[in-house]
Amino acid sequence: MKKRKWPYRVISSVWGFKITVEQFFSSILFNDIYAASKFAVEGFCESLAVQAMRFKLNISLIEPGPVITDFEHKVYEEGMKTDLSKADDVTADMFLNIYMKHWTQIFESLGQTPEVIAEHTLKIILMDNPPFRHQTNTLYTPVTTLKYADPNGDLPIDTFYKVVFEHDKVFSASLNFLKLLRWRSRKSFSLDKDKS
């Protein structure tokens, strides 16, 4: 890599980006190991990026959120079959009535296809001076901004807790609204495409 001056790109889910969308939607609930693995990738790349600059190399993190694949559908199906008989009532309720309840809605509202992620990846690969971090979906920006708004971390964690546990109907309505906006933007995009 150093000899050929090849850029280095890493795809790491924004869902694991420290305290961001991952925790907002599910890391608080049952995805802590997944989020920790993404946090490790972020830290590794941040450190590597500093070293790579010495060799005039670029490191880029490409951060998709939920990606709509058959794998996700299988994970959901297996999750619905999970034996919760040994779990306490509060944990079982959180898993079924919060985490699993919102799973499909999150993917339908925020999910991107592998093709869209590939387009973003190619765009970053071909850039002369790519950004260090590239989120593939602008819908995540407000959530990721919360992390930087309060360096001690209380604001995002408190916000995520309230959205998940105290304002479930607002959370659900927001996801439905985002789904509608995405549907309308796709519809207008396809209409514009047909005109040319």
What descriptive keywords fit this protein?
three-stranded parallel β-sheet; 8 helices; globular; disordered C terminus; mainly alpha; 196 residues
Task: Describe the protein in words.
The chain is mostly helical. Helices cover 64% and strands 6% of the residues. The chain has a 3-stranded parallel sheet, sandwiched between helices. Helix 1 packs antiparallel against helix 2 and helix 4 packs parallel to helix 8 (168-195). The radius of gyration is 19 Å and the shape is globular. Residues 14-27 and 187-196 have low confidence and may be disordered.
User: What is the strand content?
Assistant: 5-15%
What is the helix/strand order? EHHEHHHEHHH
- Strand tally is 3
Structural class: mainly alpha
Mean pLDDT: 78
Task: Describe the sheet with the most strands.
Answer: 3 strands, parallel
What order do the strands of the largest sheet run in, or round the barrel if closed? 1-2-3
Silhouette: globular
**Fraction of residues in H or I helices:** 55-70%
- The rounded Rg comes to 19 Å
Task: Count up the helices.
Answer: 8
Q: Which runs of at least 5 residues are low in confidence (pLDDT < 50)?
A: 14-27, 187-196
N- to C-terminal separation?
42 Å
